[in-house]
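Section 3.1: Structural characterization of target chains.
Under the original work plan, the team committed to producing a structural model for every single-chain target entering the pipeline before any wet-lab resources were allocated. The record below documents one such target. The sequence was received from the expression subgroup and is listed exactly as submitted; it comprises 177 residues.
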Amino acid sequence: MFSKDTKSSDTPATIDGANGTNGNNGTNGGYASGTKASGVPSIISPDLKIIGDLKSNGDIQIDGTIEGDINSRLLTVGEQAVVEGCIVADTVRISGTVKGEIRARMVHLDKDARVIGDLIHETLTMEAGALLEGQVKRLEPASTKTTAKVAPLRPATSANGSEASYGGADSAPASPA
């Protein structure tokens, strides 16, 4: 389908999403976007650098460099990949470097993962050797949230119905009856 240019260099290709250009005269409105989840991941190869945001309803596999925010269903950050920006996804698997906030239901950090930024998740798996510098916050899964109210605790009562003393600083010794 595509042929490799015989004049290619070792310099990574760059797509500038902020300007909507990729070196050609096409525009993308500032971000790359997928229209439907196909089950086949969109792959950012190691020789590709994207400056701008990525948005997909499907899966994205990053092996190159992204300078921008990413929003997808499933995101895989490969060992050589570098992401500088916020990530929002259903599931994230990181083997490379991420500098920015990650917000996902399920997050897996492989042993080679390097994350510098806050992590907001429902489920977190972290292999030995992974680096995480930032705050980690767990979100309650939507299905386990309860709306039932819990009654406040009341002090225990003694056999005669009076409140029992817990021996705190404000409590006085009980007087004989």
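Residues 1-35, 165-171 have pLDDT under 50 and may be disordered.
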